């Protein structure tokens, strides 16, 4: 192994913004692997999750956070918000994401939480959606008047537009430090955690807006035998009506959830997967702090 160069840089970069602006999508393209789940629905990310990118001269430790919640005041959302504020103060740089052309009260609320002693880069995501690029400039100017940003970078996480430019900007703010993780590490989370998240993503994606966001996934068994991983997952829902929605007509939807999950797991873990998924009714889990800890919410 080569020795770490003297001026190697390494640091933590928090990714924050209101729900659905593309935080997880951006982190995945920055690290070149899908460790954080994404969907069209707001409130997809529920756990702090790191994504790691190691270059010859720097290691970037990104921290994806749940979109800051303002609408509901249940225990789950309070826990999510606490996760976000704890992450901010311990970062070397912050990416504050907004959606090109929109800045509302939910964005303002996140902006108000940002610490003054950490460099904040304003990232204007989804710029591919703006047909008339001339409107981006006044939009950027309007927001930059609200805070002392270290830089402003318009990107499209989806099209990978300007992602390299963003990385170069981030690097300037990383302290000189040896790497914290190994060169091949892509996250600090276990395969068991990632497996549960992949199933949750498929539930989110395949159920559209029918299913209330209070459903979760637990891995009841995770065994590895040589290259084969055997995974038994349970989807927990609040009501029996939700259970039948997930199972679908003659089990068709659950089968689709299972197939898509398995394919993603095979890609991420690099080996064959045997996957069984059960649906269980367990009401009230999102309103109970002890229950949240039991399901892995910090
Ligand atoms: N057009 C376009 N869509 C994007 C872009 N980046 C993300 N999206 C889409 O925006 C939606 C939300 O993306 P996520 O990455 O899940 O957003 P998030 O900010 O992590 O959301 P939460 O975890 O719920 O707070 C998904 O449907 C993405 O495909 C982009 O650059 N352009
Ligand atoms: Mg997310």
TrEMBL record:
Monomer. It is found in: Cytoplasm; Cell membrane. Residues 125-128 are annotated as: G4. Residues 64-67 are annotated as: G3. The gene is era. Its main location: cytoplasm. An essential GTPase that binds both GDP and GTP, with rapid nucleotide exchange. Plays a role in 16S rRNA processing and 30S ribosomal subunit biogenesis and possibly also in cell cycle regulation and energy metabolism. This is GTPase Era. InterPro entries: G_ERA_dom, GTP-bd, GTPase_Era-like, KH_dom-like_a/b, KH_dom_type_2, KH_sf_prok-type, P-loop_NTPase, Small_GTP-bd. One of its GO terms (biological process) is ribosomal small subunit assembly. The lineage of its organism: Bacteria, Pseudomonadati, Pseudomonadota, Betaproteobacteria, Burkholderiales. Residues 17-24 are annotated as: G1. It is a peripheral membrane protein. Residues 9-176 form the Era-type G domain. GTP binds at residues 17-24, 64-68, 125-128. Residues 43-47 are annotated as: G2.
């Amino acid at each position: 192994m080569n020795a770490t160069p003297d001026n190697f840089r390494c640091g933590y970069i928090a990714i924050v913004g209101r729900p659905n602006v593309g935080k997880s999508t951006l982190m995945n393209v920055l690290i070149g692997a899908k460790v954080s789940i994404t969907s069209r629905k707001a409130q997809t990310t529920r756990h702090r999750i790191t994504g790691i990118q190691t270059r010859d001269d720097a290691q970037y430790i990104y921290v994806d956070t749940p979109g800051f919640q303002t609408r509901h005041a249940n225990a789950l959302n309070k826990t999510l918000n606490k996760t976000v504020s704890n992450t901010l103060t311990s970062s070397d740089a912050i990416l504050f994401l907004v959606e090109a052309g929109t800045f509302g009260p939910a964005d303002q609320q996140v902006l108000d939480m940002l610490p003054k002693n950490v460099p904040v880069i304003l990232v204007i995501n989804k710029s591919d959606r703006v047909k008339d690029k001339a409107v981006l400039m006044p939009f950027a100017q309007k927001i930059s008047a609200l805070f002392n940003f270290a830089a402003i970078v318009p990107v499209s996480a989806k099209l990978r537009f300007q992602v390299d430019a963003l990385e170069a900007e981030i690097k300037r703010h990383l302290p000189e430090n040896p790497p914290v993780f190994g060169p091949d590490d892509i996250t600090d989370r276990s395969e068991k955690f990632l497996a549960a998240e992949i199933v949750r993503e498929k539930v989110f994606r395949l159920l559209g807006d029918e299913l209330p966001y209070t459903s979760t996934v637990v891995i009841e068994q995770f065994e590895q035998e040589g290259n084969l991983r055997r995974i038994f997952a349970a989807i927990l829902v609040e009501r029996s009506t939700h259970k039948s929605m997930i199972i679908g007509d003659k089990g068709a939807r659950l089968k689709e959830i299972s197939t898509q999950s398995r394919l993603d797991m095979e890609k991420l873990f690099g080996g064959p997967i045997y996957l069984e998924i059960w649906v269980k009714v367990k009401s009230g889990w999102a309103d109970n702090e002890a229950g949240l800890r039991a399901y892995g919410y910090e």
